[in-house]
């Protein structure tokens, strides 16, 4: 038995014994075995003979699994991670469903840590942040993970923090991996990619350019053209934040020509959503309208597009079309922020609604701060600044300062 397998068997014995409410001393006595020797064995400090393991497995009701079956499950878990890397989410979901059918067997095999790590990676990928319990679970057995598994675990802890709107915490995890003497194929690509996103979020745009370009080159080397396309989209977002909408527009145009064959309609809609916001932020509403005309079927699943289209119609005085669009938008689900934005847009074109608009904007500011989300704050602050400026109220200074702290970050929808 190799060292890694021995450590996994020891960890499995400890886990299963606790699950079955066996006290260590009582279980050691049942073998029979000295408690001190059994304790050392459970901690991976004493070898486990095949005969002893069979005896323990029988008492703990562990399944008998063939080497071939274990090999197949390892291959399946590696394949799920690969599909997630290449954004083949439909296939990844199908494979993961197959994996879940074997939940009990996997959790009672030496693959229990690899299975829980794969589940963690899968759920973080789909922003299922309820899986935070897996972090504590995996940390408990971290001494049993190999270098590849530890790299993956650290990376996805960082991605989880990013999903929870904690980019600075995420960057701490990512820096740990940059300090590593080794890297893991595919996962180092994602490391640069996710680091660039966090740097955009905290406004470190020069560094974001650097890491984003590195990610794109790595994705191209591995023929991951979908991720390369989204890296280019992030590059355009950086230019938007740097107040270079024309340069951003050129990137959007180029990436759609270069990568459209690798993208689904929804991928294209995500890119067009950001391109539209680029021109809305630059008050180039004619260009924004041209972008929105290119949307593919299913764009209604991206709430941010409703904001962009409605704001464009408001600013171009297309009030009849705006009425029609706001009515149309009610049939589609949207988060609270987008709903409030559409309501504010509706209020802004009608007289004598100033106080109601101010109240609504400040309510939005309050819940966005509570949720730790900065994506919509630029809109809120700009509207409050405009509101106070037109009334010569000094409160505008407060919001100008807050806006500067956000480094002019706007709404974004990243993959």
Could you outline the blueprint of secondary structure elements for this entry?
Layout: H1 3-19, H2 24-30, H3 35-42, H4 50-59, H5 67-85, H6 89-100, H7 103-107, H8 112-125, H9 133-140, H10 147-163, H11 167-178, H12 187-202, H13 205-221, H14 225-241, H15 245-259, H16 265-281, H17 285-292, H18 303-315, H19 319-329, H20 336-348, H21 354-371, H22 377-389, H23 396-405
Helix pairs in contact: 5-6, 5-8, 8-9, 8-10, 10-11, 10-12, 11-12, 12-13, 12-14, 13-14, 14-15, 14-16, 15-16, 16-17, 16-18, 17-18, 18-19, 18-20, 20-21, 21-22, 22-23
Question: How would you sum up this structure, described in words?
Answer:
- Residues 13-70 form the HTH cro/C1-type domain.
- The chain has 415 residues and is an all-alpha fold.
- It has 23 helices and no strands.
- The protein is elongated and about 85 Å long.
What's the gist of this structure?
The protein is 72% helix and 0% strand. With 415 residues, the chain is mainly α. Among the domains are: 3-59, 434 Repressor (Amino-terminal Domain) (Orthogonal Bundle), CATH 1.10.260.40; 67-145.
């Amino acid at each position: 038995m190799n060292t890694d397998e021995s450590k996994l068997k020891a960890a499995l014995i400890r886990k299963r014994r606790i699950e079955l409410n066996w006290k260590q001393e009582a279980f050691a006595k049942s073998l029979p075995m000295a408690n001190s020797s059994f304790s050392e064995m459970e901690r991976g400090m004493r070898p486990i003979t095949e005969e002893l393991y069979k005896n323990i497995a029988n008492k703990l009701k562990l399944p008998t699994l063939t080497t071939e079956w274990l090999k197949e499950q390892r291959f399946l878990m590696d394949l799920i991670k690969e599909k997630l890397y290449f954004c083949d989410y439909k296939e990844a979901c199908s494979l993961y469903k197959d994996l879940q059918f074997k939940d009990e067997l996997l959790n009672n095999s030496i693959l229990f840590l690899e299975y829980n790590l794969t589940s963690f990676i899968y759920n973080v990928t789909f922003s299922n942040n309820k899986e935070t319990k897996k972090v504590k679970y995996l940390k408990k057995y971290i001494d049993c993970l190999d270098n590849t598994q530890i790299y993956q675990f650290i990376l996805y802890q960082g991605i989880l923090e990013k999903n929870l709107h904690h980019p600075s915490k995420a960057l701490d995890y990512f820096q740990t991996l940059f300090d590593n003497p080794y890297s893991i194929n595919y996962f180092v690509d994602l490391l640069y990619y996710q680091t660039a996103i966090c740097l955009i979020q905290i406004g470190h745009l020069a560094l974001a350019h650097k890491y984003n370009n590195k990610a794109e080159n790595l994705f191209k080397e591995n023929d991951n053209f979908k991720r390369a396309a989204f890296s280019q989209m992030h590059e355009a977002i950086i230019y938007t934040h740097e107040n270079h909408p024309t340069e951003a527009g050129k990137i959007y145009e180029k990436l759609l020509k270069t990568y459209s064959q690798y993208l689904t309609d929804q991928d294209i809609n995500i890119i067009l959503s950001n391109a539209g916001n680029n021109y809305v932020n630059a008050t180039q509403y004619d260009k924004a309208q041209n972008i929105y005309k290119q949307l593919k079927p299913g764009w209604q699943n991206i709430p941010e597009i409703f904001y962009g289209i409605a704001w464009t119609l408001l600013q171009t005085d297309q009030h009849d079309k705006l009425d029609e669009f706001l009515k149309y938008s009610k049939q589609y689900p949207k988060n609270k922020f987008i709903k409030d934005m559409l309501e504010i847009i509706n209020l802004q074109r009608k007289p004598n609604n100033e106080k109601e608009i101010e109240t609504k904007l400040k309510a939005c500011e309050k819940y966005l701060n509570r949720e730790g989300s900065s994506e919509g704050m630029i809109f809120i602050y700009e509207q409050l600044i405009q509101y106070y400026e037109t009334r010569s109220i000094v409160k505008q200074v407060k919001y100008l300062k807050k806006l500067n702290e956000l480094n002019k970050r706007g709404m974004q929808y990243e993959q």
